[in-house]
Amino acid sequence: MATIRNETTADVRGIHAVNAAAFESDAEAKLVDALRDQCVDPFLSLVAELDGRIVGHILFTPVLVVGAADWSAVALAPMGVLSEFQRTGIGSLLVVTGLNACRDSGHDVVFVLGHPEYYPRFGFRRMSEFGITCEFDAPDDVLMVAELRDGAIAGRTGEVRYHPLFKNV
Predict the structure, then answer these.
(1) Domain count, the chain
(2) DSSP 8-state code for residue 2
(3) What is the CATH classification number for the domain harbouring 40?
C-alpha cells in the first residue's frame, strides 16, 4: 500500500505530473503550483508514494465563509490519483489522512466541490443542509462540507470563498 506523507520540495514535479494526468487539463496542476507560492497557512499538501513514485496528491487550503459573522475553514481541492492506481484505496487513504491532519491542526470544517457519490463516505454533506452557499455556480449535490468536530457549523452560515486563484481554473 502507498505511504501518505507531507510533500517535500523534491515532490513538486511529481505532484504536478499527478494532477496534470488526473484531470482533463493541466489547470489543476498549475493551480497547485500557484497555491503553493501564495497560500502559507494553512496549506496542507500530502502525497501518496508507492515504490518511490508519487501516485496521488491531496491539497487543503484556507477558505473564508462570509456571512453575518465571517469565519474560516479549509477546502479540499484538488485530490488526484494516477489512473492506474485509482480504485485501489489510495484516494480514500489520502482523504482520511488529510481530514485527520486537518483535525489535528485545529480545523473543524472542510469544504469540497466534488463527486457526490464519493465524498459522503468521509462525512461530507451538502452545504445547503447547513444554509451555506458557495461563490461558484455548481450543482447543489457537489457542494459539500464535513464537520471534523460535531456541531462545528452550528449557528454558522454564509458563502464560501476560495482563494482567488481558484477562479482561474
Answers:
(1) 1
(2) P
(3) 3.40.630.30
Q: What is the mean pLDDT of residues 111-117?
A: 97
Comparison of pLDDT for 150 and 169, the residue scoring more: 150
Structure pTM? 0.96
Three-class SS of residue 119?
Answer: helix
Q: Are 45 and 57 in contact (CB under 8 A)?
A: yes
Instruction: Characterize 105-140 residue by residue with b for buried, 16 or more Cβ atoms within 10 angstroms of its Cβ, and e for exposed.
Output: eebbbbbbbbeeeebeebebeebeebebbbeeeeee
- Whether 113 and 31 have beta carbons less than 8 Å apart is answered as no
Distance CA 84, CA 121 (A): 22
| C-alpha span between 71 and 89 (Å, rounded) | 33
Q: DSSP 3-state assignment of 47? A: strand
Domain of residue 22, residue span: 3-168
